[in-house]
Amino acid sequence: MKKNYDVIIAGGGLAGLTAAIHLSQHFKVLVIDPDTYPRHKMCGEYLSMEVDSYLKSLGIHIKDLSQVTINNFRFTRGSQSIKTATLPLGGIGVSRYSLDLELYNKAKEKTDFLLDRVSDITLNHNHYEVITTDQKLTARQVIIATGKRSLLDKKLARPFIQKKSPWLAVKMHYKFKMSNDIVELHAFKGGYAGLSKIENGNVNLCYLVNYESFKEYKDINAFNKEVLTQNKALKEFFKVAVPIWEKPITISQISFEQKQPVEGKLLMIGDTAGLIHPLCGNGMAMAIHSAQIASKYVTQYLQDEITRDQMLIKYSKSWRKTFSSRLLYGRWLQKVLLHKKLTTLSYWFLERLPFLLPIIIKKTHGKEIQP
Ligand SMILES: Cc1cc2nc3c(=O)[nH]c(=O)nc-3n(C[C@H](O)[C@H](O)[C@H](O)COP(=O)(O)OP(=O)(O)OC[C@H]3O[C@@H](n4cnc5c(N)ncnc54)[C@H](O)[C@@H]3O)c2cc1C
Prior knowledge:
36% of the residues lie in helices and 29% in strands. By secondary structure, the protein is of the alpha/beta class. Residues 10-16, 32-35, 41-47, 117-118, 145-147, 150-152, 169, 194, 206, 208, 254, 270-272, 278, 281-285, 287 line the site of flavin-adenine dinucleotide.
């Protein structure tokens, strides 16, 4: 294995793999990730169509991966109130198992992969030194794409990692009959659950919950039975849905604290730069889009058109311009959804002004990404 690369990418999730496919068209790229492919990942698995053209330009045809085309949104809480809306751009239902594998297969045509974990990164004059569990490597540019939370964040002493986060998430695939063309969001005490179909006809249930709501119950089954079923739609779901796996995937300590796309001289993409609240269903598109923005400026830097400092400033500015307002709306929406009085009030408004719902959804999504 080479020890010296143009670009080393820490993390081979959606953001890291997209940047690898983009940059390996011109440069020698290495992706470092401790996991093998394919793998299931925490995610609602609703992918906004805003990424379609850009991914096509990289040789990834998402419509070939899944026929589940989603154009409608349904929101429920408690036993009554149901709101539906048409999604402005729509999306597809595709498992991370299939999507990440497709990107990995494309990336590995031109990119090297190392099954390892990045433990430290330092900048020494003109190159970065990347330390993994077993190796010491160098690169002209490093991109950090290690996702929501990583030991690397601790090593780099990033401010968000110092604060405890109360959020945990649960995901499970089920056999359940539901319409192809809808993504559903069901609110319950302390959290909300997304339901939508994936490419093989199974249904993904993925929920986010505050630890305070969860901790009085012994386990996930008890929590599902006691709390999720207080939502009528989820009660109907659990009556007939058949779980596919023996146990669900869970993660804790999900942080929605503000992060920075550039810290020190380190460039971050995907969830490493900022995580939008999952109810917006836009995190995957943002991860892919941030990889495109970073790849554009890293290319200019590696081709000596701009300096490293200029590249970092341009990326940071462009990232903020593209994502800041989406993140803000996401934060605001999550607050409303989890606040009983505010949810009741917003329902009252939406009942009378239903055209507002698609407008709110639009605020948390972007336009189609141009290749
Ligand atoms: C509950 C929940 C539901 C969601 N639902 C949706 C949805 O329906 N639609 C949507 O668009 N988005 C959704 N999202 C958001 C979406 O899942 C993320 O935004 C997306 O996965 C971000 O991709 P990423 O590449 O940044 O991170 P990831 O896909 O998490 O990849 C990070 C990679 O880094 C690797 N890594 C970690 N540490 C290291 C290290 N030290 N060295 C090397 N590699 C490392 C990991 O192994 C991993 O492969 C949801 C999120 C949550 C929490």
